[in-house]
Amino acid sequence: MDLEQILADIAGEIDRKAVEIEGAADAKVPDATPGPFGIAIAHKDGVVVSAGAANRFPIQSIAKVFALDLALRALEDRVFERVGKEPSGDPFNSLVDLERNEGFPRNPFINAGALVVVDMLVEQHGAAARDAVLDLVRDQTGDDVELDEAVLTEGGDLNRAMLSFMRHHGNIGGSSDDVMDAYARQCAISVDVEGLARAGRFLVGTRLAPDNPAEDCRARQTRTVLALMMTCGHYDASGDIAVRVGLPAKSGVGGGILAVAPEVAAIATWSPNLDQHGNSILGVRGLEMLVAQTGWSVFGPPSLAA
Q: What is the per-residue DSSP string for 165-226?
């Protein structure tokens, strides 16, 4: 399989049809000029290929994947004593769902759940939690990481309100300032598509190893992360993306998407224009096209030829 050619073909087709693709979507900003598109694959064996734009972008909510993985390493399934595993059915920053469940977030990828996960990291690692996700990403990418200043200085009033509400219900133990600082820094991590694909490559390994307890535990934790990416990674559009793409994936409002083909590769796409759910319009289409040509869907290849 010539992945370089496949990616070049996808990037070329999207470039030619960007106006048509975005025009047919339920865009967050109607009639916006299509931005650039980039796509990269980091194969399990270490090979990295890419096509299209190499712009840097803040990973934003994609950081929630890395934070969850760190929390599972530290606490294993005790993570889910404080945050659930179910889709929310409400916007990612909803206070209504949090009130309905008395401060217990539905999953780790809505903002309330991500804040609880960061609080766990603060409790486990103290001051080191501030850059725990940044250190993980740097370790995976070879230190080619920056922080986006605009994201670092964004207001966080609604997130602070969630923290106060969850503290009232006993689900936040650390300092709100410490949690907000660590949360902002992980969202501000800035990479290009190759960097994001490299950062997510460690999530490719899902093979169980009954004769090696440590490896077996790690594979089960990774499966948990990928399962939640599949069911909750695109908020209210998670079901639609599962049907169209068929890979565990997590989006961010910076326009990036990280997807994982288990035991094969990590895939990253980026394009800035978003749909109403906060997912990159061209990024989703790029993943859809890639899976159609590679047969990497977790639900099986599209044909015998694939």
A: HHHHTT---S-HHHHHHHHHHHHTEEE-HHHHHHHHGGGG-----TT-HHHHHHHHHHHHHH
Is the confidence at residue 32, as pLDDT, over 80? yes
pLDDT tens digits for range 148-195: 999 998 878 999 999 999 999 999 999 999 999 999 999 999 999 999
Element housing 261 (H / E)? strand 256-261
> Over the stretch 259-287, which tens digit does the pLDDT of each residue have?
999 999 999 999 999 988 889 999 999 99
Q: For residue 235, what pLDDT band results from cuts at 50, 70 and 90?
A: confident
Residue whose structure tokens are 């749909």? 275
Structural domains of the chain, with CATH? 3-55+192-294 (3.40.710.10), 60-190 (3.40.710.10)
> At 264, which amino acid appears?
V
- Give the whole-angstrom CA distance, residue 260 versus residue 8: 20
Q: Which residues of 186-217 are buried (b: 16+ CB within 10 A; e: fewer)?
A: bbbbbbbbbbbbbbbbbbbbbeeeeeeeeeee
Burial group, residue 157, by CB count within 10 angstroms (0-12, 13-18, 19+): exposed
pLDDT at 306: 46
Helix axes 63-75, 111-125, angle to 10 degrees: 50
